[in-house]
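Ticket closed. Logging final result for Peptidase M12B domain-containing protein.
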Amino acid sequence: MRLVIIILLFKVELAIFVDEMLWKLFNSKYGVDASNKLKDYALTTLNNVQIMYHQPSAVPKLSFHVVRFEVLTTQPSAMAAHLHNNGHAQKYLDRFCKYQRSLGSRDWDHALMLTGYDIHRGTGSRSISGIARLDGMCDPWNTCTLAEGLDFTSAFIGTHELGHSVGMRHDEPYCPAKHIMSSSLGPGKVTWSICSLRDYHTFLQRLDSRGKNCLRVSNLPQKLAMRTDLKPGQVYNADTQCYIMHGQGYRQISPRQDHYDGICYMMWCGQSSFGRIITSHPALEGTFCGSSKWCELGRCVPWPGVGLTATPKRVDGQWSNWSEVSCQSCKCSDISGSVGIVTSTRSCSKPSPANGGAECVGAAQRAIVCNRRCTSSSKSVEKYIKEKCTQQKKQKNDSELTGSGTQLTRYPQRACKVSILLTNLNIFKCLIFISFFEDFLFFNRKTDLGSSCSKE
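Final structure:
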């Protein structure tokens, strides 16, 4: 009788590279803490990817060991921007595959490049977010993936592209377009289809038949370890996921209050000061989604009492200290009637609220008057607004814009925003403005700090 050994877990020895463009973005955002932030981001992304490859249907499961982590603070000449047309997906992948193969110490199973480019297809289309060589795993020349690393969409891109590397085709047309290997990212696409699992098993069998299954061998030391004691959404809560994707001021919101748990299917982010709501991506695994609940494979489920991860704890937010200010940085606006202002900020981060904990109460920014006798003022508020509105009219080349504007001082929360008058009330036109009100459009422009916000 022949003994059949079934392996339930394979190990991918992974090399992670970060290109110069992504390093510059993190460096400009986080300064001296950029290196640590980048490492945390990459490992949290990989943790979410690994959870996708550990779900019950995925057999054998894939675990990822980081055997190399390299931040390319200076882009190697072999991958210079002009050689891949500043992020042409196929050209950049080709360059990266050759580069990782040429490294003398190369002995990993797969190489992943996280890029700061908004990669493109070369035809004006930027709908692509990642690319990998089909059936590339274990082939030194082709075992490589390129994925945008601009936010946590990378967790879903990486899962999808690594799927191509282990033999998975797109689900369509033989399976529904609601799984990880659908041809596009989308709500709730966090499970494997029967098509993907069939492709995966066929690929592994082919590797074994050729005696080239590198996933059966593990001989490199692990350089970085993921925090498997914490799920990704416990490291970066929903608000932080929104901030990383959309920027300052964005937080997780629910279009309907009774559907808060829907963030596991698709997370929504909003900026309350402008009323803007934007879709994001399914929340990371382990993101808080309701009382004693978190996200698990697209669903909001109760926390486990026992298991690999401890039961999450409710954490109330606390303010950090106010940032220091210096009167030497005091500046006066060139708008008449202004005073000199310096601003101090604080963040609800010591600690940040988590798992339903209370938000900090109060303002995150305060203004301190540093000069009550500004003498450099040269223009009225009306003149300033006229200049900005005329500038917008020229830039947009839009016949609906009059070039005239105002302050809507009857709305205190909007009094410091410049509003441009429309020629008619038909405002359902696709513009890059933030929000609409009556016959005015508000664009992303404010009067200078210290300027008067009322004629009174």
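The CA atoms of residues 315 and 354 lie 5 Å apart. No further action required.
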